[in-house]
Amino acid sequence: MLVFAASDKGGTGRSVTSSNVAYRRALAGDDVCYLDFDFGSPTAAAVFDVPGASRGVASAGLHSHLQGRHTEPHRIDVWAESEHDELRYRPTGSGRLVLLPGDRDGGEFAIGKDTVRRCVNLFLQLESEFDVVVVDLSAGRSYAVDMVLEATAQPELQGVLSRWLVFHRWTHQHVIAAHGLVFGERGIVAGGVERGHDKGALRDSIRFVRAAVPDPESPLWSHVPLAQSEWMRKCDRDLTELAAELELGYARLLGKIPLEPVLQWREQLITDEDVLASKVAGMATRQALEELAAALVDDEAWERQ
Amino acid sequence: MAPPDRDRRPILCGEVRTSVLRTSEALTARTAAQLLNLRPDEHVLLSERPNLRVASPQLLTGVDCRLPSLNGSRPRAVGTVAARAVLTEGRVLQASAFARLVPGGGDHRKPWGHYLLRPGVVEPLGRHQDGEFTEGFLAAAPLPGGVLNPGAVAERLLDEVLRHRLLDQRAPFKSGRTRLRWVALPAAGDGVTSIERFTVAADGLRTVALRVAPADPSAVAALCEDLALHDWLLTTLVALVERSRLGSGDREAVLTALRPVVDHLLHLWMPGARVPDVLSGVWETLERRPGFSRQWQALVQRIRDQVALQTVSLPRPVLADS
Known about the structure:
The structure holds two protein chains of two kinds.
Chain A: E1 2-7, H1 14-27, E2 32-37, H2 44-47, H3 62-66, E3 76-77, H4 78-81, E4 97-100, H5 113-129, E5 132-137, H6 143-152, E6 162-169, H7 172-183, H8 188-194, H9 199-204, E7 206-213, H10 226-245, E8 253-258, H11 261-266, H12 272-277, H13 283-296, H14 299-303
Parallel strand pairs in A: 1-5, 1-6, 2-4, 2-5, 6-7, 7-8
Antiparallel strand pairs in A: 3-4
Helix pairs in contact in A: 1-13, 5-6
Chain B: E1 11-20, H1 29-35, E2 45-47, E3 53-55, E4 59-66, E5 76-88, E6 92-101, H2 112-116, E7 121-124, H3 130-138, H4 150-162, E8 178-186, E9 194-200, E10 205-212, H5 217-243, H6 251-264, H7 281-288, H8 292-312, H9 316-321
Parallel strand pairs in B: 6-7, 8-10
Antiparallel strand pairs in B: 1-6, 1-8, 2-3, 3-5, 4-5, 5-6, 5-7, 9-10
Helix pairs in contact in B: 5-8, 6-8
InterPro entries (chain A): P-loop_NTPase, ParA/MinD_ATPase
Keywords (chain A): ATP-binding, Nucleotide-binding
Protein name (chain A): ParA family protein
């Protein structure tokens, strides 16, 4: 399965959340591969705590592979190379967790026929090796988004299951921007149709993930004045209505990640140690990530229209 | 003192890349022949005994490159790399590329016509040391850009065949690719063929150094394809058995996970089936230690025992129905 992680803007927690989902899938026993297609700022390795690659690798990253400068893209076995205490020992029953980093001096690049061909080959090869292939795309309608739309429209990839996760924060601006990214005139759906995708099938393969969502019912806000708490509830209701109007409602919602300082500030994987032993991360966050990871491979969640 | 260039026997180097064919059903001889019909002017080679193997015609790629070495001296070399694709039992696809390094190419590049008359020959310009080349070529790290890299030729060929529209891109199980990079040096005197090293590095890379008795270069390449095929089979079987959590998970789930192994892999094991006698010493060595077939048989036995146990523990009515 190919999973494309996209977001309307930066700062939505796309990389950190999709990395956590990749990690949770591997814990559940799937062989998982994570591709850093954020060509402008390849920082996925930092989330996985891999030394020496936190801002991308010096050579043979995904940029240079797609541009034909290296036949073998660099692979990092996260279980073996991570410096995170909890990641260094691969738990029994877990699957492989492999990261394909970007190049340090990358940047966006123009996309030609050869780039698309290499991209198709890469997706086909990884898909035949891994259960889940997560592709972390640069924010907005970037070259990376164009390239994967072009690649997945090729006949060779028709038999391969593709799913899109669009991350947005739970604010007025972000809900509107996420709608634009997917359904707008220059959005993912329009761009896909232009390249030969079936409109209905592409729309059905897209789900939204709300990130950094404050929960008005959380004990965190139980001591705020009544007026403030009422105001928070009203904002949340208004946003829910807006989201429903803009086709970002429950039918297309795959997960909701609470506002979580560890995700915001540390931008790393949330392990059970963080939740249970050192208690720096909330149980609700861990639960949300686990549910999102389960929903990703749950066909029923993707059949809702 | 090193012998003058004209007396040196050429060394061979190459790389084999092995992958599952991404199709839900194994191809028949007929479709396999269509798949590997890569040149309109030449036929594919088809052999049905002792198992089905189809090989594409040979393709040539012109190269003007540097020879790898560890000490940084990288002499230039010009010529052609020969490549072909091989499909075993309609299920395992290999792309294999090799070149013969023939000394005495002079100091300057000749017109292309000269090289085209010598398919699969690469001529170093100026002097080079066989030892330096071998060490540089077999170093575990990926080969730097601009040096002789049969693996890159093989990779392109493999990707091209794997994208063929005959394939539905649905492999019956998940598996990785392996790369077997090899060098064959002439055996001393009339010597016998032997294997000097077989290493398993990270990322599916294997390196092999052989000493070979005088033999046809494509027979040596075919021996390496055979080694690569069986190394891939073993690697893949080990990975699939591990993933099935045999011995720990619930038995039904284990059997579901192992089913594609029984359907698609177990009958493919035939080491040395087509290797000519003059080269067969390599397999004898490998079977003694580490014992490829020993490990394979042990795994196969574990799988069969699981299947047998499952059948024994089925409730009686299920057995009666079937």
